[in-house]
Amino acid sequence: MLRTALQPKWLGALVLATVFAAVCGWLGAWQLEEARAEGRAQAIERAASLPVAPLTEVVEPQSEFPRDGSTRRVTATGTYAVDDQVLIAERQLDGQVGYWVVSPFVVDGTGATIPVLRGFVADPDSAPAPPTGGIALAGGLAPSESPRSEAGLADGVYRSIDLGLLVNRWDTEVYNAFVFATEETALSGADEGAPAALEGLTRVPPPTGEQSELNLKNAMYAVQWWVFAAFAYFLWWRMVRQAHREELEASLDDGPPDRTPDRPPADVTPTDPAAADPAPDAAEPERAAGAPHTLSVPTTTRTR
Questions:
Q1: Which of 73, 137, 142, 264 is deepest in the core (most CB within 10 A)?
Q2: Distance CA 37, CA 41 (A)
Q3: Does any domain span residue 91?
Q4: 150: how many CB neighbours lie within 10 A of its CB?
Q5: What letter does residue 290 receive in the DSSP assignment?
C-alpha cells in the first residue's frame, strides 16, 4: 500500500488534503476564540444580573472575606488615590499577555481603601492614571489572591493581588477584598454623570464562579471544523486503499498461466509395453531369449 501512496497523483491528493485540513484547523481555532469571547461577554451579563449591594453592607475593612461574597456585585462611592496605582504582571486577556491595572479606591463613609482592578493593558507604560474626583463604582467582588514571588519585577509591579503586600505599600486600612470594575461614573466636574474614560484600558470580566466560560454554539462549530480536517485525511486514506486493492486484483488477473505438464493419475497403470516389461538382464542372455536353463556341474578327476 505504501508503493501506491507514493504515486504522484496520491501525493498530490495528500498535499490538497493537508491544505484543506490546515484551513479547517485555523477556522476551528478561530471559532474557539470566538466561543471564549462570547462566553466572557455572557459572563459579564450574568454578573450584571446578580443582586447589587453596597460594598459597606457586604464586607467591612480588615475583616474576613464573606463566604457568599465571591462574584457578588457591589457598588461604592469614593475617590482614587492617583499616585499609588500598581500593576499585576503575567496576566492574559483574549490570548494576549499583559498587565492588570489596580488602583486604590478610598470608600466614602469608612475611609478604608479597596483595590480596584480597572482593566488590562499589554504595555505597562500605557497604563493610564485613574480618574480624579468623586467616582461611583460598580463591579464584582473577589478575595485576595495567593502570594507570588516578586523576583525580577520593577517597583510597583507584582504577580498577584496580594493584599498583605498592598496594605504595607499603601499604609492604610484596607478591605480584605478587591473589585473587578465594570462601571465608573464621574460624580463631579464637567463630566458629572458620564462614564469615566478608559484611555486604552480593556475591562477584565469579573469571575462568575463557573468553571467554563465558553459559548457552546461557537465551541461546537470549532469541533465541527476539526472533524472536517480529520475527515480529509480519512478520505485520502480510503481512496489510496481502494486503489491499492484494484492494483492487486489487476495483477492477479493478468498473471502468467500455469505451465505445469499434465500427469496421469497415480492409480492409472501405464500401457506402454516398454514401460511395463523391464529390459533383459545383460548377464543372462540365454534366459532373456527364452532358452531352457542348464545346470553345469564341474568334473573332478582323482589321481592315485
A1: 137
A2: 6
A3: yes
A4: 15
A5: T
Q: Are 118 and 181 in contact (CB under 8 A)?
A: yes
* Placement of cell 454554539 in the chain: 217
In the block, which residue shows the cell 525580577?
Answer: 152
CA 206 to CA 139: how far, in whole Å? 7
Rounded-to-integer distance, Cα 225 and Cα 128, Å? 40
User: Do both 107 and 157 map to the same domain?
Assistant: yes
Question: Does one domain contain both 204 and 226?
Answer: no
Average pLDDT, the chain: 81
Residues 197 and 225 both lie in one domain = no
* Residues in contact with 192: Cβ distance below 8 Å, sequence separation at least 6, in sequence order: 186
Residue 263 counted as domain residue: no
Which triple of cell numbers denotes residue 248?
Answer: 492487486
Tell me the pairing of strands 96-107 and 113-121. antiparallel
pLDDT at 269 over 90: no
pTM for this model (two decimals): 0.55
- Which residue range is the domain that position 133 belongs to? 52-209
- Degrees (nearest 5) of the Cα angle 208, 210, 215? 95
Which three three-digit cell numbers place residue 297? Answer: 556341474
Name the nearest CA neighbour of 97 among 105, 87, 106.
87
Whether 99 and 145 map to the same domain: the answer is yes
pLDDT for 48-73, tens place per residue? 666 789 999 999 998 898 877 777 88
Phi-psi region of 4 (alpha: psi -120 to 50; beta: other; left: phi over 0): alpha
Q: Domain count for the chain, please give it.
A: 2
Q: Are residues 94 and 224 in the same domain?
A: no
